[in-house]
Amino acid sequence: MLQHKKILLGVTGSIAAYKAALLVRLFVKAGAEVKVIMTDDAQDFITPLTLATLSKHPVQSNFVADYASGVWSNHVDLGLWADYFIIAPATGNTIAKMAHGQSDNLLTATYLSARCPVFVAPAMDLDMWAHPSTQANIATLTSYGNTIIDVEEGELASGLEGKGRMAEPEHIVAFLSNFEKKNIKSARFAGKKVLISAGPTREAIDPVRFISNHSTGRMGIELAEAFLQQGAQVTLVKGPTTLTADSAIQEVNVSSAQDMFEAVSSHFPTSDITIMAAAVGDYTPVETSATKIKKKDGNLTIELERTKDILKTISASKKGHQLLVGFALETNNELENAQRKLASKNLDLIVLNSLNDKGAGFKHNTNKVTLIDKHNNITNFELKSKEEVAYDILDAIHEMVD
Ligand code: CTP
User: Fold this and answer.
1) What's the CATH code of the domain at 228?
2) Three-state secondary-structure class, residue 171
3) Is the N-terminal amide bond of 240 cis, ω within 30° of 0?
4) Are residues 122 and 21 in the same domain?
5) Nearest CA to ligand 1 atom 17
6) Ligand 1 atom 8, closest CA
7) Does the predicted model carry a pTM greater than 0.85?
8) N or C, fewer C-beta in 10 Å, the chain?
């Protein structure tokens, strides 16, 4: 995501400055161009030569770069050059200066003139971090539109334990990559209402036991976030899972197949695109005991009855402009079963994944899918991350609604 991005890294005088070397290395590895500004104090912790070598650009620290020739470091140019300005580590002192518009060094002057998004990764001892003045400065910086990359918890240079460590370089790079991903200006689903179901359902046997499945909801959540990023208004009907989706997604949390049926049915009439990615329980106990079932000698038989088929039910009231997508998780006769489901549930598209493919289905962050549309066009995809699979599905849907 950071390929060809121009990243200006500001390094201030904290022991965490040694991590700036790894940060520069990771940014460069991700394909970004990196320039570094260091404060004088930062140079007590790491040498400019290290960061210049890793970034392949001279490190800048002073307004005047070379007194003899009169060459100076133009903080305005630096600020305009950058796509992102990230101050990591940011000391309490630099944060205070930034919050109050002080510009007594190249770094803070560049901050004042930068027009790009600014990220601040604080690093300090736990009491400095917790101090009301630091917290007030952080709130001020946030109110100015800067993004704070939260401190992490652990052992601090002082020997104390707590919150105050700079976020690990890997986390900072991931944070920026995610920011970049969400900012890609693509609004091909703008104005579209998208309804997605995700996760398992739970069918209660008694107050402590239930029947469920291994679905984590990840595929549905990736789809919801991809649609959100591309301009859609997304409602996510989510069965019980620990995974969470972007807070801009309207979430409806449900438990049983009946709950999911009701939630999906109520949102379906107003949605343009509906995707049932949930692993809905096909059977539920005929009776749910109000009290815990006590064990007895011998076997226990629980009678199960069919739950409603959500897709089949909503597809009966589908209007011409509405697009309906289902999933099929199969173990045998995969293509045949998926084609049968596509037809019997009156779908526009079905996403087939086979449990026979390594890395596909439940519990993996990857998936290998085949898309089959209502005209029986069949497209096979390689094993990919579920995020990438989500974008393949979006591409196919976009072709159908375009
Ligand atoms: N589905 C649904 N309601 C159910 C069961 C499944 O809407 N009660 C949806 C799933 O979300 C999925 C699709 O139907 O999009 C296929 O689900 P699957 O369980 O594989 O298919 P079934 O129709 O239940 O067939 P089978 O159990 O024979 O595999």
Assistant:
1) 3.40.50.10300
2) helix
3) no
4) yes
5) 328
6) 309
7) no
8) C
